[in-house]
């Protein structure tokens, strides 16, 4: 990526990279994101050769049968910064990876689902979220352009779901989950999709039950958050919803932002000292 051109950064929960590799490659070929953050790889291996043939390099952290995250990029390979969320050395879930790509710091996350709640899985979700909030504060203040992209497993408001009534007991809608998301945004992050589509019912997830895809009965749980350096670069955002309608599709569709990195604030060079006159 170069600072003088527009780039597309996307996030996509693939729900199994081995079983849905053809879907992933189809999306990459058609939409050609410059950076793609992937979640729920559900594998301890990675199809690097297939992705390189498609024009993408990647950093990834896998886990057999569960979780798993990756950052893909066209052109220059992503430079890994970290591969785990700070704050709990005993947490061995593959849910976080961070890399520098073309001058942008990209964090890819797969936040715990938390069901059933209440219970230990929900407690883990909230504890993980708190660790993420603390780390995100350091990223927001780092002075570099940053995007936090991934499956947050949080429906921020009732406007982000087709009908909240049947999901009232779900961990994705609990007040504690929504409060954590609000506290994250209060650091100064811009929720790109909602910022650009304030009045649109926009969804990124449709489960496999009760014809939810066919009825557009969806949820918005995949988010891209931009820090104060990167937010002014936002020119477009959306969801590649066609992906959800393909055969053997993931229950998520990719969400994306288009950024004009030419708008990044230029750091002022220090003023030259005037020459002393005799």
TrEMBL record:
The active site is at residues 110, 151, 252. The record marks 252 as: Interaction with DNA substrate. Residues 10-252 form the Endonuclease/exonuclease/phosphatase domain. It holds the Pfam family Exo_endo_phos. The record marks 222 as: Important for catalytic activity. Its cofactor is Mg(2+); Mn(2+). GO terms for biological process: DNA repair. The record marks 153 as: Transition state stabilizer. Probably binds two magnesium or manganese ions per subunit. Mg(2+) binds at residues 13, 40, 151, 153, 251-252. Keywords: Hydrolase, Magnesium, Manganese, Metal-binding. One of its GO terms (molecular function) is double-stranded DNA 3'-5' DNA exonuclease activity. Belongs to the DNA repair enzymes AP/ExoA family. This is Exodeoxyribonuclease III. It comes from Ramlibacter tataouinensis. The lineage of its organism: Bacteria, Pseudomonadati, Pseudomonadota, Betaproteobacteria, Burkholderiales.
């Amino acid at each position: 990526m170069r600072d003088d051109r527009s780039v597309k950064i996307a996030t996509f929960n693939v729900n199994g990279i081995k079983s849905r590799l053809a879907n992933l490659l189809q999306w990459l070929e058609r939409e050609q994101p410059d950076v793609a953050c992937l979640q729920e790889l559900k594998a301890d291996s990675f199809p690097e050769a297939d992705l390189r043939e498609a024009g993408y390099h990647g950093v990834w952290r896998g886990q057999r049968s569960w979780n798993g995250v990756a950052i893909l990029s066209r052109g220059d390979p992503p430079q890994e910064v970290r591969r785990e969320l700070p704050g709990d050395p005993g947490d061995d879930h593959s849910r976080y990876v961070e890399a520098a790509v073309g001058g942008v710091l990209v964090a890819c996350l797969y936040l715990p689902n938390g069901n059933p709640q209440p219970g230990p899985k929900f407690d883990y979700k909230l504890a993980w979220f708190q660790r993420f909030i603390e780390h995100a504060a350091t990223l927001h203040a780092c002075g570099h352009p940053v995007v936090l992209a991934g499956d947050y497993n949080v429906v921020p408001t009732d406007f982000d779901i087709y009908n909240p009534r049947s999901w009232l007991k779900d961990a994705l809608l609990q007040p504690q989950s929504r409060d954590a998301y609000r506290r994250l945004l209060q650091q100064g992050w811009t929720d790109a999709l909602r910022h650009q589509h304030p009045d649109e019912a926009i969804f990124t997830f449709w489960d496999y039950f009760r014809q939810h895809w066919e009825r557009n009965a969806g949820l918005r749980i995949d988010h891209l958050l931009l820090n104060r350096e990167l937010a002014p670069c936002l020119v477009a955002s959306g969801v590649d919803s066609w992906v959800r309608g393909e055969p053997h599709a993931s229950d998520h569709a990719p969400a994306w932002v288009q950024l004009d990195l030419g708008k990044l604030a230029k750091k002022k060079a220090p003023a030259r000292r005037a020459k002393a006159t005799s």
